[in-house]
Amino acid sequence: MLKITATGNLTNDVELKLNETTGKPYAILRIASDRRYRNRDGIRRTDFISVKVRGKLAQRCAAYAVKGCRVAAVGDFETIIFAEDPSRQPGFLIQATEVEFLTPRLAEEGSVAAFPGADAADQAA
Fold this sequence. Notes:
Blueprint: E1 3-10, E2 17-18, E3 25-38, E4 44-54, H1 55-64, E5 70-80, E6 91-101, H2 120-124
Parallel strand pairs: 4-6
Antiparallel strand pairs: 1-3, 1-5, 2-3, 3-4, 5-6
């Protein structure tokens, strides 16, 4: 088993989908992560990583994560092989078991910043 952690910014809003056979929700998060080093020309390279989330975790991501927010995803590394096009290069994604929202979410009506899953009473305490 290979566990992987990826941290980056979401490239688009999370779109919740339903699995056709099971009827359970899932979503594919696409995150962009800049490398720590620069190339000879002084340019940082950006990697784009796909993360699949399922069930309640997918619903939570759809409710709280928006384009540009910073997330950390932890899960299993999965290789994708395209059977319909054998000449296509294999890819990979992370089957996430955990997603952490690293960007605070602004609370409604001008109160302090609230983190996903916390209500105003939690913020006051």
